[in-house]
């Protein structure tokens, strides 16, 4: 083959193993051809590329306020999507805020200079984009654990009412009425479908560049 796409997930058994990206790095070392990530233990760059395209398409100001919020889920989900989203948002000039319950702090290298707010409603105030995602705990012995299923963190009309008529985003698939209420995800400010369409665009752009590089 000419190019290999690899998708791997955090096992939540050993944080060092996961964050060293052992699986995808073995492909890079031994495959003998270009490798791209379709998602890995710590990052999901194609998704974050799609997210950035979407925000650029819908933003109404040069420096929008973007809020990434933790939301409840019954299972322990990887940190790849929120890590990547934070990394990409920190590379822009956007005002970027991360909000989550205490105990759900992400790795410092991904949080960067983002403002971390434990009061979700306060974080949402004046936001232009709300990006909802669940992730399992990162820190210490709690790595990979579900510490809370607090439904008060479900994104609802109440939360959206304090924003600047914010657009709602999620990478999909989504646990309805747990991550976000039906009324929000089906509402006029939900842009999850265009966001999903841009996921195809992000992959196409990367593959095109890689194929051109083979010539």
From TrEMBL:
BP terms from Gene Ontology: citrulline biosynthetic process; L-arginine biosynthetic process via ornithine
Keyword terms, alphabetized: Transferase
Record-annotated Aspartate/ornithine carbamoyltransferase Asp/Orn-binding domain positions: 81-207
GO molecular function: amino acid binding; ornithine carbamoyltransferase activity
Family under the similarity heading: Belongs to the aspartate/ornithine carbamoyltransferase superfamily.
PANTHER family per the UniProt record, alphabetical: ORNITHINE CARBAMOYLTRANSFERASE, MITOCHONDRIAL, ORNITHINE TRANSCARBAMYLASE, MITOCHONDRIAL
Name of this protein: Acetylornithine carbamoyltransferase
Species: Bacteroides graminisolvens
């Amino acid at each position: 083959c000419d190019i290999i796409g690899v998708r791997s997930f955090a096992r939540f058994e050993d944080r060092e193993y996961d964050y060293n990206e052992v699986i995808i790095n073995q492909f890079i070392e031994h495959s003998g051809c270009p490798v791209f990530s379709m998602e890995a233990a710590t990052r999901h760059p194609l998704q974050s590329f799609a997210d950035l395209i979407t925000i650029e398409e819908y933003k109404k100001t040069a420096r929008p306020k973007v809020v990434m919020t933790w939301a409840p889920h019954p299972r322990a989900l990887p940190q790849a999507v929120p890590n990547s989203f934070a990394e990409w948002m920190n590379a822009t000039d956007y005002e970027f805020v991360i909000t989550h319950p205490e105990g759900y702090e992400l790795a410092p290298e991904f949080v960067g200079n983002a403002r971390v707010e434990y009061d979700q409603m306060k974080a949402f105030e004046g936001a232009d984009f709300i990006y909802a995602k669940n992730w399992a705990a990162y820190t210490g012995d709690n790595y990979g654990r579900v510490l809370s299923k607090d439904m008060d963190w479900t994104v609802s009309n109440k939360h959206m009412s304090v924003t600047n008529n914010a657009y709602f985003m999620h990478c999909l698939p989504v646990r309805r009425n747990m991550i976000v209420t039906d009324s929000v995800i089906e509402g006029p400010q939900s842009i999850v479908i265009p966001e999903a369409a841009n996921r195809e665009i992000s992959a196409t752009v990367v593959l095109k560049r890689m194929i051109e590089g083979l010539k």
